[in-house]
Amino acid sequence: MKLEFNRKYTTIAIYAFLVLAAVVLFLGLVLNIEFFTDLLGTVGGLLTPFIYGFGLAYILNPVLKFIENKLMVPIFKEHINERLRRGISIFLTFVSFTAFLTVFIVIVIPQLIASISGLVASIPQYIETLDILANKLVLMIPWESLDTQAIQRVLEQYVGQLMQSAYEVLRQCLPWLVRFTARIASGMLTIIIGVIISIYMLFDKEKFYAGAKKIWYAILPNEKADFVIELANDANRIFGGFINGKLLDSLIIGIICFFGMSLLNMPNVMLVSVIVGITNVIPYFGPFIGAIPSFFIILIEDPIKSLWFIVFIIILQQFDGNILGPKILGDSTGLSALWVIFSITLFGGLYGFVGMFLGVPTFAVIFMLFKRFIDSRLGKKDMPLSIGDYCAPEFPIPKASPKRMGESRKRMRAEQRSRLKGLAHLAKPKEEPTKEEEKKSK
Q1: Cα–Cα–Cα angle for 109, 113, 117, rounded to 5 degrees
Q2: What does the alpha-carbon distance between residue 184 and residue 176 come to, in Å, rounded to a whole number?
Q3: Are the C-beta atoms of residues 233 and 423 closer than 8 Å to each other?
Q4: Where are the alpha helices (DSSP H) in 333-401?
Q5: How far is CA 110 from the centre of its chain?
Q6: What is the DSSP string of 296-345?
Q7: Rounded CA gap, 355 and 406, in Å?
Q8: pTM
């Protein structure tokens, strides 16, 4: 008996098999959720050096581009080949990065330790002051009308629980110290491997990009591959502009805070400046997160100067929000204030401090994709793309004129071509020079 091939039923069978496989995979995931969670944790731990390396390479890439294009090319021109120039540029980049870390460790860390030590040393004085206030409060209580025996029993119970808790903490302290030491050693090794990986990524970044582009064009149709590459270009623009700009902005704000507080002769200048600079990387909420603990740190030392600190920090944040921030960041995300607050709240609740920092560019990419999807759907219906056309009271919304739609489509195509053109110089891998060319260059 000869079996006839039926394309229709074969397609149905393939789809049915894929659906069944997806159902089995989903049930296996639900029934063995702990196994898959542990597996993801193990894989994530193994990939941690690569994540660190990629993050470090991404942050140092603007420094490398500046050194290579603004210093190395004008100085050496064509006297050395590109690979040697790239190697020297990477070396100078990491020297600059190491110098910055050294300055931070040598200058900032000792002052931080001194500020924290000063706070710790003054704790007995604060406790003594609180003790005096508590004694005055005790003298004001009418003890004759209270059940002192019941109070004594409650105090004895809480003291016993406190002693038991202290014993448990001390008993678990030694194993925790051992684990903490092992974790520090493992973390140092991970960081060293991450630095090595970042050097390789920076050295051959054009080849890595070209290889990724080659893979996308191999597995996807050309139009979809163009879309993925365009998305990667826009995501790189948003993330790079936001992260590098926000780090530079926060560094400048921390330095201004240090000099301003020094001129005002405030206590714990270095500690407060570091807190303000670090928390400033979080848009909108960062200044408040940094100002609240800083206010209490100064309040403990000098209540009057804590009020001056509030005035100073308000002026500083107004300068950052209206002058410095827009000058450095510009409109790198394209989000309104409402969506920035929404993204910080959402990603901050999910991933903590890192989510509050990276949530804004992540949501900006999602928002950009959604906006392009909406514009594409409206364009197919010959509807206007400008949001101002939907503020009119008329209903239904009138369709856009052919001339206006043609202009909108031309503008969208021009934007797409410009984005793809921006990728062209990255897409082409640089060819390695031959031995004859190296001899000629020498």
Answers
A1: 170
A2: 12
A3: yes
A4: 337-380
A5: 27
A6: HHHHHH-HHHHHHHHHHHHHHHHHIIIIIHHHHHSSSS---HHHHHHHHH
A7: 41
A8: 0.66
Side chain identity at residue 266, one-letter code: M
CA distances from 98 to 95, 334, 384 (A): 5, 34, 53
Residues in the chain: 442
Q: What is the spatial distance between Cα 143 and Cα 154, in angstroms, rounded to a whole number?
A: 16
* Helices of type H across 32-122: 33-66, 73-76, 82-103, 109-121
Interatomic CA distance for residues 57 and 51, integer angstroms: 10
212 is written with which tokens? Answer: 């990724």
Per-residue tens of pLDDT for the chain, all 442 residues:
455 556 667 777 787 888 888 888 777 777 776 777 777 778 777 888 898 899 899 889 988 888 888 888 777 776 678 888 888 889 999 999 899 888 878 877 777 777 777 766 776 777 677 667 767 766 666 656 666 666 667 666 776 777 677 666 656 666 766 676 777 777 788 888 989 999 999 998 889 888 988 998 898 888 888 888 888 888 888 888 888 888 888 889 989 999 999 998 888 888 888 889 888 888 877 888 888 888 888 887 788 888 899 999 999 888 888 888 778 776 667 777 788 888 888 888 887 877 888 888 888 888 888 888 888 888 787 777 777 767 766 656 555 555 555 555 556 556 655 555 554 444 444 455 555 555 555 5
362: which 2 tokens?
């992540």
Residue indicated by tokens 């005055």: 136
